[in-house]
Amino acid sequence: MLIGGVDEAGRGSVIGPLIVAGIAISDDELPQLKDLGVRDSKKLSPNRRRLLALLIRNIVRKVVVEEAAPQVIDSYVSKGKLNLLELELMARIISRLSADVVYIDAPDINVRRFTALLTRMLSEHYGLTGIRVIAEHEADVKFPVVSAASIIAKVYRDSRIADLHTTYGDFGSGYPSDPKTIRFLKDVLSRPSPPPIIRRSWRTITRIQGELKSRKLRLS
User: Fold this and answer.
1) What was the pLDDT predicted at 219?
2) Going from the N-terminus, what domains does the chain have, and what CATH number goes with each?
3) d(CA 166, CA 172)
4) What is the reported pLDDT for 129?
5) Neighbour count for residue 24 (Cβ, 10 Å)
6) Which helix (H) or strand (E) holds 39?
7) Residue numbers of the chain with a pLDDT score lower than 70
8) pTM, whole model, 2 decimals?
């Protein structure tokens, strides 16, 4: 029996893509994940994550990664449907995993609603009716198979962010809590054409734009 795990990285970031990753592993190989010591990717150093990602890929049967660009994210956020975007990405991944049971770190506060919507989407869009979906909050802490997916997603995102640094300069992690990211945003948002890597729908952007506008009015 194949067991799947799905998780995301970059949901709260104000710069860069949202990444969702899924893995599928045979149930008799699950102990190998536990032996690796996989856990929530946020609790691991970047070097440890990269090493574990390589080891995970050597154990699992399949790895699937989906990416949503900032413009796509903004289009969903503008309609208040960020959870729907994540659900669609997860359904797309699950459709390719061929797993019998899939564990997911639920993005929706209402786990039962999320599970029902995902199950219906798998059935209506992909013709998959026999997959057992188990969605829980903090699943990346509870289930090694989700922890492994979390690590894959985070390492993939780290790689994408490194690529963006090469093109746009070092903007830090891309999260609103990062002072380097905020300094970068204040700089580029004062220009006529900010780069396309920014999620324009984020409240952080609205706040910074308001601050810049107020400053400009005071100086005029």
Assistant:
1) 63
2) 2-165 (3.30.420.10), 168-219 (1.10.10.460)
3) 12
4) 92
5) 25
6) none
7) 39-41, 217-220
8) 0.93
Q: What is the pLDDT of residue 148?
A: 95
- Which amino acid, one-letter code, is at 11? R
Picking from 147, 136, 146, 144, the residue whose alpha carbon sits closest to that of residue 114 is: 136
Contacts of 183 (CB under 8 A, 6+ apart): none
- The C-alpha atoms of residue 146 and residue 135 are separated, in whole angstroms, by 10
**Given this model, what pLDDT does residue 180 score?**
97
Q: What is the token pair recorded at 218? A: 């005071």
- Alpha-carbon span 197 to 78, nearest angstrom: 17
Name the residue with tokens 């890929």: 57
Average pLDDT in the chain: 93
How far apart (Å, rounded) are the C-alpha atoms in residues 181 and 175?
7
Task: Please name which of 158, 52, 63, 142 lies closest in space to residue 106, comparing C-alpha atoms.
Answer: 142
25-62 pLDDT, tens digit per residue, is 999 999 998 888 886 667 788 899 999 999 999 999 99
What are the E-state strand segments in 28-145? 62-68, 101-105, 132-136
CB 19 within 8 A of CB 65: yes
Which of 161, 12, 166, 144 shows the shortest CA–CA distance to 77? 12
Q: How far apart are CA 106 and CA 87, in angstroms?
A: 9
pLDDT of residue 41: 65
* Tokens coding 156: 């993939």
Nearest residue to 104 via CA among 167, 153, 147, 162: 147
CA-to-CA dists, residue 55 to 20, 62, 139, angstroms: 19, 13, 21
